[in-house]
TrEMBL record:
It is an enzyme of class 2 (transferase). Residues 795-1132 form the HECT domain. GO terms for biological process: protein polyubiquitination; regulation of signal transduction; ubiquitin-dependent protein catabolic process. It catalyses: S-ubiquitinyl-[E2 ubiquitin-conjugating enzyme]-L-cysteine + [acceptor protein]-L-lysine = [E2 ubiquitin-conjugating enzyme]-L-cysteine + N(6)-ubiquitinyl-[acceptor protein]-L-lysine. The active site is at C1100. This is HECT-type E3 ubiquitin transferase. GO terms for molecular function: ubiquitin protein ligase activity. It comes from Glossina brevipalpis. It comes from the Eukaryota. SUPFAM superfamilies: Hect, E3 ligase catalytic domain (SSF56204). Its EC number is 2.3.2.26. Keywords: Transferase, Ubl conjugation pathway.
Length: 1132
């Protein structure tokens, strides 16, 4: 670039401009930097010029050389046209055409055609040379590669290149000249290995898409001869993979075929011709394909990403977590890219079509497990589909989801535009594409969902899965399939035979659970099950498998539990292997009671940990600007939404199963005492009004697994958002309240009621203060008067205010006494007693004398729903006023009141009709022909002496009960008895109860706890507790002789007499739920002064006016006479 003039020294630069100027330090440094930049720029330009000149010279030289070789080729061809069969002449031409061939040169195409014509006329000697000499093999490989390129040229005849490819690649043709089978296979291996490495399948696919006419549907007949030839070219390496002795050859072929044909987006010829034809090919190397794809699945257990103790792997803040995530992403970028290119929705659809003829052989060759693992990994693509709408209205399915009476319809949209980065650490999103799917991909995924429900495929998997129960990776793969279907479709357990069949395989359910337990034992404190139980985020490498295993277990186990009656649930003798006699009854319960106890303990801890993770104690600090800087695109947010849905669904499933086990324990009592409660819970009991449990409260505005939103101006104007601790407490009380001690929940309920009273009455809650409802009722017509005067139609919409009751005696006179609370309590107790009296007709009694709504009340009372609404209001008023009433309600009716759902299942039938329940269980296990019992889908009902037959389903009298439909009959019969015939009654009752006391507050309690809440515990009155909390007035004190005689007399009372005394003083015969310390006002004894009087009481202030009797006998006699006289308030 520069001439050399002989000077090798650098001459000093002469400055002829005048006086020199001294530059400062910064100027010198700046000029030196600029000069360095100029030198670097010149050096780059020089190097670029050298490279460009070298390439140009090489291009010109090669073109000249190729032109020269073409001239030599043409001259030699003209002079030796008749002698081309000779090896030397053919080698001379092949060396040159392989060097100068260019598809853009028309003459080169003619030269190739001419030489190929000579070769295909007599290929025998050439094929033998290829087998024996590598140089000839190389020449043929290159020539075949050129022929494939030649096929893409539209104006050139295709017959000769196709004939050339067939001659040297078709086994049926080559074996004519190569008799040694081993040499034949080696030759074909090398030919196809070379072609496959040079985009063999990619170019064949392009040829097919260019030359194949449009197809309207699937066909097994080639659209034209060229399509048939291309199909055969695709098929030959695949068929050879089954016979090749080199596994690497089959792996190379299957990998290239998968990448360029199966995994790429479908075109018409691939969808409608190639895939269907391959599916009908019995020799297709499906097993090789599965083994190849297995090599591409990411390692099950990734390396520990926190070996150096990097604290950013465990979230300590949003930005460090982001840095750690970016570093991990850069390390695995190549691996993730390869995985995404191969494992696509097109590959999933292709595998599900190609496996039709090979699933049985896969099991025979022990490759079914690999197949399940691959399908499980690719099935994650299903999560990109829009969620499927529910097709079934099933009580069991709806149990998993939030009740429509509680939650808004947009519960599925459980995420917003922001999510905590710390929560993202538990979400494995590396293998889920964030690119929006096209309509074609969406159609492929819909096809995949349908094919996963294919009966033959499901049957083969279910029949053989027990052989893989000890393989954790196979179980994980199958659970991933089930889990992805569950996320896509809420009713997956009913819509997909795979899930339904696995639900009734106790060995599979048991294996899934103990796989989770084994992971915990092997990994110790780092196991996801242990970490989640402690509210700690697990590693990304373990999170995905953990979620799919646990979610699938909970769904399947939760589905099978309602089908087991209590005998099947508890009978330890039925825990045996499946007998050889298929007629014998086989137990479906996967666990023993001891295992259930431990299982429920683990799920209890996991559910609590998930609640802590669902509501992290951080706020999102990323606005749209930061999101842009950190690369948080819309597609990334979509990925986050998918993972948020997965984890929130896991929380619902764990809670769903846990509630079922707890409900069963309430009936059977197989768990030890205090098994369900967790003492370390720290709920804000000092401010229970900060725990809004009702619908539409602030807690419902917070979604799962996302940060607490930032404060806004509207929050300060209205009310501050909930803290993480408050939201966790609310979630626990709404979803798993039984882990909180009963006494704590009672205090929470009392606090909520107190907050409502403060809102309604303010500070006017003292004696005879505040707004009130004045009511005059006759003792002889107590219910009628109260019903008429307290109906909402009579301007009494709010029963939360105080009542002022005036009794009218049987003589028509007003009873003495001012209602300061005691008269009202007696009125409410007597009113409830009258309303629930079976003689009135609104309620009936079971065989164990428990009350439930009368199904036939509508036959003699048209507006019965108004009465049940009223009765529900007065019972709500009793709970609202913390008044205990002796009201034994049937267990199934209590479940309807305390449960989120109005309907109950067959297990509650024993509390209504034990004989019918026993008969239905006998029918379920009946081993003979059920048709011989002459049952149909009808039920007989007797009303007012008239017998009528009701159909359990349309045209039920025309459907006999058989072995195949007896389960449906049992469910319909139980549903009719428990739900349908009293549905209107219970709905009206719940509405009335909710009018006074939000029914959501009662969801904290089980049916038995609600009975205690209404009637108190069935325990004797604790005199010691009453004595400790008793107050004295006047000259009375604990050592006073009359007080000593009083307590001595009470100790001689039986329990009934003690309750009569308690009712005499407080108007309630039941002690307070949490002891006499909660009695307000406290039990008070005052000196009445006159020993000639009987003891009297002021029930409004719980005051006993006791004359100063000194002897125990006199004290006992006077007390019994006073409390058993049955007078109203005349004695006061």
């Amino acid at each position: 670039m520069f001439g050399f003039d002989g000077e090798y020294r650098r001459r000093p630069i002469q400055n002829l401009s005048g006086i020199s100027q001294t530059s400062d330090r910064e100027t010198i440094i700046r000029k030196a930097a600029e000069e360095r930049l100029k030198r670097n720029q010149m050096r780059r330009e020089t190097n670029e010029a050298i490279v460009l000149q070298s390439y140009t010279r090489s291009f010109i030289h090669r073109n000249r050389r190729k032109c020269l070789e073409r001239e030599i080729f043409d001259e030699f061809l003209r002079s030796h046209r008749d002698k081309l069969i000779e090896e030397e002449n053919l080698a001379f031409l092949l060396r040159r055409i392989l060097f100068f061939y260019n598809a853009r040169e028309s003459r080169d195409e003619e030269r190739l055609i001419e030489i190929c014509q000579h070769i295909v006329r007599s290929p025998a000697r050439l094929l033998q040379n290829c087998v024996n000499e590598y140089v000839w093999l190389y020449r043929i490989k290159k020539l075949l590669d050129i022929c494939i390129t030649q096929l893409a040229t539209a104006h050139v005849p295709q017959a000769i290149p196709l004939r050339m490819l067939e001659t040297f690649t078709a086994e049926t043709f080559v074996e004519r000249y190569v008799e040694n089978e081993k040499l034949l296979l080696t030759y074909l291996d090398r030919i196809f290995s070379f072609l496959v490495e040079h985009d063999y399948y990619s170019r064949l696919r392009q040829l097919l898409e260019q030359r194949c006419p449009p197809l309207k549907g699937e066909t097994l007949h080639p659209p034209n001869h060229f399509s048939e030839a291309v199909f055969q070219l695709m098929l030959r390496p695949l068929l050879l993979a089954n016979r090749s002795s080199f596994f690497s050859f089959g792996e190379t072929v299957c990998r290239s075929f998968s990448k360029h044909v199966l995994s790429s987006a479908y075109s018409g010829p691939i969808r409608y011709f190639i895939i269907p034809c391959l599916a009908e090919c019995p020799n297709f190397p499906f097993e090789y394909l599965i083994k190849t794809l297995k090599q591409w699945i990411p390692a099950e257990q990734a390396e520990d990403g926190n070996k150096d103790g990097d604290p950013t792997s465990i979230f300590v803040g949003p930005f460090p977590a982001t840095i750690s995530g970016n570093r991990q992403t850069s390390v695995d970028q190549t691996k993730t890219k390869d995985f995404a290119e191969i494992f696509t929705c097109s590959l999933l659809r292709s595998l599900l079509i190609l496996d039709r003829k090979h699933l049985k052989s896969l099991h025979a060759n022990s490759s079914l497990g690999d197949y399940i693992k691959i399908i499980g990994h690719i099935s994650r693509m299903i999560l990109q589909l829009p969620k499927c709408s529910l097709k079934h209205v099933s009580h069991h399915a709806n149990d998993i989801e939030d009740s429509s009476t509680e939650e808004s319809d947009d519960e599925e949209n459980i995420y917003t535009n922001e999510i905590t980065l710390q929560t993202m650490d538990i979400m494995d999103t590396s293998n889920i594409t964030s690119v929006p799917i096209t309509e074609s991909e969406k159609r492929n995924l819909f096809d995949c969902v349908e094919m996963l429900n294919d009966n033959q495929r499901v049957q083969i998997i279910v029949d053989n899965i027990e052989n893989y129960l000890k393989d954790a990776n196979v179980l994980q793969g199958l659970c991933e399939i089930c889990h992805n279907l569950m996320i896509y479709n809420k009713a997956a357990i009913f819509d997909y035979k795979l899930l339904y069949s696995l639900a009734f395989m106790p060995n599979f359910i048991r294996a899934v659970w103990f796989t989770l337990v084994a992971q915990s034992q092997q990994q110790g404190f780092n196991a996801p099950l242990i970490l989640i139980s402690k509210g700690v985020v697990p590693k990304v490498s373990n999170g995905s498998s953990f979620v799919s295993l646990l979610a699938t277990f909970c769904m399947l186990f939760g589905h099978i539990l309602p089908t087991l009656h209590d005998v099947e649930f508890c009978d330890e003798k039925l825990l045996i292997e499946k007998p050889l006699q298929p007629t014998l009854h086989v137990r479906l319960m996967p666990f023993s009671l001891a295992e259930i106890v431990q299982l429920s303990k683990t799920l209890k801890e996991v559910s609590l940990g998930l609640v802590e993770l669902a509501f992290p104690e951080t706020r999102s600090i990323l606005n749209q600007h930061y999101r842009f800087v950190l690369g948080r695109s819309e597609s990334y947010d979509k990925k986050i939404k998918q993972q948020t849905l997965i984890w929130s669904n896991l929380l619902k499933l764990v809670v769903f199963v846990l509630n079922q086990i707890h409900t069963r324990d309430l009936r059977l009592g197989f768990c030890p005492e205090s098994h369900w409660t967790i003492s370390r819970l720290n709920l804000p009991l000092d401010r229970p009004n900060d725990l809004p449990l009702t619908r539409g409260s602030r807690a419902h505005a917070t979604r799962l697994f996302q940060p607490i939103r930032d404060f806004t101006r509207e929050d300060f104007e209205n009310r501050l958002p909930m803290s993480a601790k408050q939201i966790r407490s609310i979630t626990i009380l709404r979803e798993i309240p039984f882990i909180v001690a009963f006494s704590k929940r009672v205090r929470i309920l009392q606090g909520l009621v107190a907050a409502v009273k403060m809102k309604v009455l303010g500070h006017l809650q003292g004696f005879l203060q505040g707004p009130s409802i004045k009511l005059t009722v006759r003792r002889t017509h107590l219910y009628e008067d109260a019903y008429v005067k307290l109906r909402p139609e009579n301007a009494v919409p709010n029963l939360r205010v105080k009542f002022r009751i005036q009794f009218v005696s049987s003589l028509g006179l007003d009873e003495a006494g001012i209602d300061g609370g005691g008269v009202f309590r007696e009125f409410l107790l007597e009113l409830i007693k009258t309303a629930f009296d079976p003689k009135r007709g609104f309620f009936m009694v079971t065989t164990d004398n428990k009350l439930y709504p009368n199904p036939n009340v509508g036959d003699f009372l048209m507006d019965f729903e108004k009465h049940y609404y009223f009765i529900g209001r007065i019972l709500g008023k009793a709970i609202y006023e913390n008044l205990l009433v002796g009201l034994p309600l049937a267990e199934f009716f209590l479940t309807k009141l305390a449960g989120k759902y109005a309907d109950v299942d067959i297990h509650q039938l024993a509390s209504l009709d034990p004989e019918l329940y026993k008969n239905l269980l006998y029918l379920k296990d009946y081993e003979g022909d059920v048709a011989e019992l002459n049952l149909d889908f009808t039920v007989a009902s007797s009303t007012l002496g008239k017998m009528q037959v009701l159909e359990l389903k349309p045209q039920g009298q025309n459907f006999p009960v058989t072995n195949s439909n007896r389960i449906e009959y049992i469910q319909l019969m139980a549903d009719y008895k428990l739900n349908i015939q009293i549905r209107r009654h219970c709905v009206a009752f719940r509405k009335g109860l909710s009018n006074v006391l939000p029914v959501e507050w009662l969801y904290m309690f089980s049916n038995k706890e609600l009975q205690i809440l209404i009637s108190g515990a069935e325990i004797p009155i604790d005199l010691d507790d009453l004595k400790r909390n008793c107050k004295y007035g006047g000259d009375y004190n604990p050592e006073h002789p009359s007080i000593v005689a009083f307590w001595s007399a009470l100790e001689s009372f039986d329990d009934l007499q003690k309750r009569q005394l308690l009712k005499f003083v407080t108007s309630c015969s039941r002690p307070p739920l949490l002891g006499f310390k909660d009695l307000d006002p406290p039990f008070f004894i005052q000196n009445a002064g006159d020993m000639d009087r009987l003891p009297t009481a002021s029930t409004c202030i719980n005051l006993l006016k006791l004359p100063p009797f000194t002897s125990v006998e006199q004290m006992r006699e006077k007390l019994l006479y006073a409390i058993q006289s049955g007078f109203g308030f005349e004695l006061s």
